[in-house]
Design brief:
CATH class of the largest domain: Alpha Beta
Shape: elongated
Largest sheet: 8 strands, mixed
CATH topology of the largest domain: Rossmann fold
Helix content: 25-40%
Number of strands: 19
């Protein structure tokens, strides 16, 4: 192997020579990102810069581990010969216990230090909650205000000024700041690096984009993510995970993103002690951590609810709760299939809502070629008390056309029925299903467009027993990937927000969380599924005729 640097080669060798257990993503990173980049003629590695940066470790109560030195060297030392840094974006995903906050603290200290040397290189830390955002910030604050050795006090005071709100690098005039993902105004800042801590909780990228818009005003801008995985599906991190697969799959000379992933490869590895290092590369350096994880695994039989958390946070391998999830995230994502032309086709409708001043979900279900095609629309009342607590990018989905905000004290029934009336001009809606207790609000309006529960009998009043009957069918359609929704994140979100409610041998559906994870559009689909037999037809196999051959 070519010698690139004493700070890079040891970790490369351990991975490629299988000296330590590692996930497949680590090998792909070496083969399709790191080595091809370091072998390029237009790239140089600044050994002295990395060495100077690592000298700052003396101010910290810990030393960087081998994987951290490797990662730091790639972040700080790989340059284009034009003078620009090469890796302008870094995405690191590791299991809890790896020491990610310590590594973030070191990066922050380095970026605002005279060793880094770039003037005005402000660093913004972003996390979902203030406590998390301040974790690494407080580390840097303490290093300056209460040095591990008294002899460091003078030199640190000369180069840094620390308050509870910001830490300044005096020579570089750089500032370390912390931010939360609160939706309250964030101005674009003159930023050198944005560091995202625990990105798995973000559904909405608005504030991330605002902070990132400040990049590019100083030399060597960087976007750095250091996170574990989590339980939120369909969010910012899931999109990046899909991008990461493509980046790791083959070398792309235009790619400037470094992807560093540590995770187990298979779910069954969760209780195999020798495999834990795949997700937590620091585990052998912290004996107390290994002991703690052993205890967690040993007690799992008594605390089975912890398994989901353990898999997502420790093993960096999220799994759903098989007992309550409506469908796995993979099965929900499989609904993103292309539509066929459905104009003039038979379909049934579904409606659901809890309150008229919150969300109302509507859908149409078609059955063609043994697949269930679903069109949906969601109405959102701007006066809903829950809107401030919802992290989903509702405005983005509205601009996409998947939902509509209604600026009124409630969503008028005429607006909901108008959607069905418009759809009726394109498709043959045979019947509409709605919860028995919600019907009265829409009754008179539905009659005006030709739908009535009692005379025309083309409105189904859905009861819990109807849902129990169809729940097994819904599960079967999910696992066989027979739902076709197109790219509709709001319906995926509503589905993932729902859960199975088991009543004896029967299943109905409920909410994962009562206020902020809305399920109305999924429940509109469920209601529609109770009458889908109105349009299901057995495929008639055409007889195959033999050609007559005359001799």
């Amino acid at each position: 192997m070519k010698i690139y640097s004493k700070y890079i080669n040891p970790y490369i060798d351990k991975i490629l020579n299988n000296e330590i257990e590692h996930c497949k993503e680590q090998e792909l990173m070496m083969k399709n990102i790191v080595i091809p980049v370091l072998n390029r003629d237009d790239i140089y590695f600044d050994e002295e810069k990395v060495e100077a940066g690592l000298s700052l470790q003396k101010y910290f109560p810990f030393k960087l581990l081998e994987w951290e030195i490797f990662l730091f060297a790639l972040i700080a030392g790989v340059f284009l010969k034009s003078g620009d840094i090469f890796f302008s974006e870094v995405r690191a995903m590791l299991g809890r216990g790896s020491g990610k906050n310590g590594f973030i603290s070191f990066l922050c200290f380095y970026f605002i230090s005279p060793v880094h040397g770039i003037k005005g290189y402000n660093v913004d830390l972003l996390a979902n909650a203030e406590k998390q955002a301040k974790t690494s910030f407080n580390d840097v604050y303490e290093i300056i205000k209460d040095p591990i050795e008294k002899s460091y006090k003078k030199v640190l005071s000369k180069h840094f000024k620390a308050t509870k709100e910001e830490v300044k690098g005096l020579k570089t005039k750089s500032t370390l700041r912390f931010n939360t993902s609160s939706k309250r105004g964030k101005d674009s800042k003159r930023t050198g690096a944005v560091i995202f801590d625990e990105k798995h909780e973000y559904l909405d990228s608005t504030n991330m984009n605002t902070l990132m818009s400040g990049l590019g005003k100083v030399k060597d801008p960087r976007k750095i993510t250091i996170t574990t995985d989590g339980h939120v599906r369909g969010g910012v991190l899931d999109k990046e995970k899909e991008e990461n697969k493509k980046i790791l799959s083959e070398y792309d000379p235009d790619n400037r993103t470094l992807v560093f992933i540590c995770k187990i490869d298979e779910e069954k590895e969760w209780n195999q002690e020798e495999k834990w290092i795949k997700a937590i590369p620091s585990i052998n350096d912290f004996p107390y951590l290994k002991t703690e994880i052993k205890n967690e695994v040993r007690s799992m039989s008594n605390t089975p609810d912890y398994y989901k958390e353990f898999m997502a946070k420790r093993m960096n391998f999220p799994v759903g709760d098989k007992d309550i999830e409506v469908a796995t995230w993979e099965d929900i994502m499989a609904t993103n299939q292309e539509f066929i032309d459905l104009k003039g086709k038979d379909c049934v409708g579904g409606i659901d809502f809890a309150k008229s001043n919150d969300f109302i979900g509507c859908c149409l279900i078609f059955y063609e070629n043994e697949k269930y095609y679903v069109l949906q629309h969601t109405f959102i009342c701007t006066k809903s008390r829950d809107l401030l607590g919802i992290k989903a990018p509702l405005k983005d989905w509205a601009s996409k056309g998947d939902c509509t905000f209604i600026d009124d004290v409630e969503i008028p029934p005429e607006i909901v029925v108008q959607w069905f009336d418009t759809m009726k001009q394109k498709y043959n809606i045979k019947k509409i299903a709605i919860d028995y207790f919600r019907f009265s609000l829409l009754n008179s309006c539905l009659k005006q467009i030709g739908f009535d529960a009692f005379e025309l009998k083309n409105v189904k009043l859905v009861r819990p027993s109807d849902i129990m009957k169809v729940s097994v069918k819904i599960n079967s359609i999910f696992v066989r990937h027979l739902y076709v929704w197109g790219d509709v994140p709001i319906l995926r979100w509503a589905t993932n927000n729902s859960k199975k409610v088991i009543q004896g041998n029967n299943i109905t559906y409920g909410k994962q969380e009562p206020n902020y994870r809305k399920t109305d559009t999924f429940m509109a689909l469920v209601n529609g599924m109770t009458i889908v037999d109105e349009i299901e037809k057995e495929e008639v196999k055409q007889p195959k005729f033999m050609k007559t051959v005359i001799i």
